[in-house]
Amino acid sequence: MAVGLPQEAQSILVEEMVLNGEWNGTYIQAFLPNEIVEQILLHDIPRDSGSDVPTWRYTENGEFSLKSAYELLNEVSHPSQSHPLWKKIWKIPAMQRVRSFFWLVGHGRLLTNMERHRRHMTAVSGCQICGGDGESVTHVLRDCPYARDVWSTFLENEEDEKFFSPDMTSWMMHYLSGKRVNLDPSLFAVVCWLLWKNRNTFVFEEKLAAASQIQGAARRIHHQIVEALKRDPMTRGEHMSGEWRSVGWEFPPAGWSCINTDGSVALSSQSATAGGVVRHDHGRFLGAFVMNLGGGTITRAELMGIRQGLQRAWDLGVRKAVLRSDSKSAVELIASATTSSPHFQLVSQVRRLINQEWEVRVEHTYREGNVVADYLASTGYNLPVGVHMISVPNPMLQHWLLFDLVGSVTPRFIYQ
Ligand SMILES: [Zn+2]
Fold first, then answer.
1. Distance 148 CA to ligand 1 centre (A)
2. Residue 82: its pLDDT value, please?
3. Which domain of life, per UniProt (predicted)?
4. Within a domain: 252
């Protein structure tokens, strides 16, 4: 995922980059695209204690250069996996998304207002739900009066204070270990995850669910997990053969654009959606779309998303594109020569689009590398049936675009 650094920027030194101990965003902005500036601002300025001159350990002479910072940003981080908490996180009996969420929590990667404020991304550092000071991870997941309200139903009174006092790591260790009868690791994890999701919906879309709705949703999801575990002990995370890998969005090669698409089907309501996003090589947003398909199978939804994604990219003037879908079967259908598939017509249309005068590669990606398209598809259920074009990202979409841009990776267990 290496990205190129403009020639004129390669010899810039720390004095020019830092103003009063903080990144000088305005200065950096003068010669780098905005999305790259955001990546840089997300990283702390390294400081050498005992000296008021910042030094930089990633070059041989200790002099900071933008080039070395850039190379650092391009590394995929492989954090220490020795703390017992990681083992707990990987074995959370819940959906992969919930484990990914805890992985972000454990790495301090959750962009709470305190974190965003520290990184000069927002003027607000407090909690927008209760109006309290300092929206930290602990506040969102536990100490906010709103979160306390949600937890109250799962706690027995005498243990309340024990629940609300430990530091974040001990708190997660304790409750992911299943020390509570009424609050097993899966329920605990699901409640935390829902609290964060709900916080985002409030911050970005100004909708706040009642505490009882979060409680109900948590119990429903927990029930489904318990049932799934009875059927398939594999999901318990035991007896698995394979390895953990960090998966994230990958920048397309220089000069290429990336199309990510996703399809989704709601089991309960017989409805289907698709979504997709087109980005240029540095991650620059070109356009997106959301479709409410009314109904249909998951493979059809995936293929409809792929067809629309190709069309949208073509219309945007893209002539070199990597298309990434997290549907293995859709990708295989496009690559195969079969004429017997029920989706033959749709596949033929996709192939016709690919065979226009441009270069297109079709690749499979994991869901963790496809979060923007995944988010877009999930919004389709609330829209009228049809195709909805997006030219300007709303705050929630910006949040997910930034998630990819800063090189966020989440762990995924790859079966072997
Ligand atoms: Zn609060």
1. 10
2. 57
3. Eukaryota
4. yes
Distance from the CA of 74 to the center of ligand 1, in angstroms? Answer: 35
**Domain co-membership, 217 together with 316:** no
On whether the pTM is more than 0.85, the answer is no
Domain boundary among 53, 73, 93: 73
Q: What is the mean pLDDT of residues 382-401?
A: 90
Q: Tokens 């070199």, residue?
A: 320
Give residue 109 CA to ligand 1 midpoint distance, Å. Answer: 19
Residue 138 CA to ligand 1 centre (angstroms): 10
Residue 2 domain flag: no
Q: Give the chain's domain count.
A: 3
Distance 199 CA to ligand 1 centre (A): 9
Mean pLDDT, range 290-311, rounded to an integer: 94
Q: Residue 270: which CATH number?
A: 3.30.420.10
Structure tokens at 136: 């930290």
Helix H or strand E encompassing 382: none
| CA of 194 relative to ligand 1 center, distance in Å | 15
Return the number of other C-beta atoms located less than 10 Å from residue 401's C-beta. 22
- 209-228 core/surface letters (b: 16 or more CB in 10 A; e: else): bebeebbebbeebbeebeeb
Judgement on whether residues 338 and 301 belong to the same structural domain of the protein: yes
* The pLDDT value given to residue 47: 44
How far is ligand 1, taken at its centre, from the CA of residue 134, in Å?
A: 9
